[in-house]
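User: Some background: our group keeps a shared notebook of sequences we're curious about, and every so often someone picks one and asks for a predicted structure to add to the entry. Today it's my turn. The entry only has the sequence so far, pasted here. Could you supply the structure so I can complete it?
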Amino acid sequence: MSGRFERFESLSEDRRRAVVDAAVEVFGGDDYACASTADIARRAGVSKSQFFFYFKNKRDLYLYVLTAVTRRVADAVVDERWHQIDDFFEIMRYAATRKAALVRLSPRIMDFFVRAFYPGHRDVSGVLDAFMTDSVSIMVRTYLGHVHWERFREDVDPMRVVRMLVWCGDGYLHERLRGGGTFDMGEMLSEFLVWLDWLKRATYKGEYL
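Assistant: Of course. Here's the predicted structure to add to the notebook entry:
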C-alpha cells in the first residue's frame, strides 16, 4: 500500500476490514458516482470526519479498497496446494474454482470487481484501466513462477494464452451484463473450464495432453 494510507494502516485489522467490507458493499451495489461515502462510513461504524482523516477523497478510498480486495482474493486462492501445482491449466482451474467458492461466501466481492472492470467514471477509469492491464503481468510474475512453461508448443507464446483467458472473461462479462443482464458465477466457472480445455488442446505439446 502507498505511504499515503499509513494512518489507515495503523488501525487494527478489525477496523480496517470493517471499512473495506462496507466499501465493497456500497461500491458493489451502485455506480462509483452514486456510491455514498457517508453510507460507507455509517456501515463501517465511523464518523465521516474520521473517514476523511484516513482517506483524502472517495477516489483514494476506492483505489485502496481495490488493492485490498485483490490481495484478499489472492490470499484465499494461493495456498499450500497452489505451490504444488506446476501445470498452467491445472493451476488456472484451481484458481477459478477457489475464486468461485469465495464469491459464493461473499457475493458482493464479485459485484465490486465487475463494476471495477467497467467503471464508467472519469475519476477512476484511467487508473483502473492501468490496474487491470498491469495486474496480468504482476500475477504471472508473482504467482506463476513455478509453472512448467515448456509444456507449451514452441510456436506458442504463453502470455498470449494468459491474455486470451482474460479477454474471454471480459467478453463473457460484457455479453452477460449488456442491457442490464445478470451475472452467474457458477455459469461463468463452467464456461471457463471449457475454455481451459480448448486452449490446452490447442497450445500444449502432445505428450502433455
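Suggested note for the entry: DSSP finds ten helices and no strands in the chain. The chain has a mean pLDDT of 87.
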